[in-house]
Amino acid sequence: MIYKYSSFFPPIQNESDLRERIMHIHTSCFALCKHVLGKYLQVAGNIGIFSHDENEYTRLINIQNTLTDKTKSVYGKYFFLHSPYVIPAKDDIQKTTYTHLYIRKPDITKPYAGDIDFYMEPEKYSALKTSLLTGKTKTGMRLLDRPDLDLIELFEDNIGALAYIGKMKAPAGYP
């Protein structure tokens, strides 16, 4: 079952809790992608964890410090994992590898467990974006309202994570 963030998930206390949350976000975002688009997309390589209070945020940053190279980042927030987080194939979802981790500060407007960025080829992304701009919207999809990011947001009230579609993959390899 996929749940919206609530008391179902207690605050993350340790790396084991973090890995459980990553699995939830992974499963939720792939379900969201399939539900909204009718198919799965390739992940860009990053996974975001949303903290829900200052104490959880502090714990998550401490955990992140042990799992990532804080001197190597993309945009100063996506930190390279020392070892990629690989989730084996299950059912019709292919094996997935996450290479970057970021922790979001508490935000009462985002009561979700976290997010994943999916990658779409630039031509297909442009066509999808154009269809949204011209009013051919699909339920559960909208343009992200941020001038600094060109992303499409996937959402559903009953799914406890957000997914974003972009036309960029995370940098390959490790520093």
Keywords:
175 residues, alpha+beta, 2,3-Dihydroxybiphenyl 1,2-Dioxygenase, domain 1, eight-stranded mixed β-sheet, 3 helices, disordered N terminus
Q: What's the helix and strand layout?
A:
Layout: H1 15-37, E1 42-50, H2 54-67, E2 68-74, E3 78-87, E4 96-104, E5 114-119, H3 122-133, E6 141-143, E7 152-154, E8 161-166
Parallel strand pairs: 1-4, 5-8
Antiparallel strand pairs: 1-5, 2-3, 3-4, 6-7, 7-8
Number of domains: 1
Structure class = alpha+beta
User: What percent of the residues sit in helical stretches (DSSP H or I)?
Assistant: 25-40%
Total number of beta strands: 8
CATH fold naming: 2,3-Dihydroxybiphenyl 1,2-Dioxygenase, domain 1
Give the termini distance in whole angstroms.
37 Å
Structure description:
This protein has a single domain (15-166), classed as 2,3-Dihydroxybiphenyl 1,2-Dioxygenase, domain 1. It has an 8-stranded mixed β-sheet with strand order 2-3-4-1-5-8-7-6. It has 175 residues and is of the alpha+beta class. The protein has helices at 15-37, 54-67, 122-133, and strands spanning 42-50, 68-74, 78-87, 96-104, 114-119, 141-143, 152-154, 161-166.
Could you provide a short overview of the structure?
With 175 residues, the chain is α+β, with helices and mostly antiparallel strands. 28% of the residues lie in helices and 30% in strands. It contains 3 helices and 8 strands.
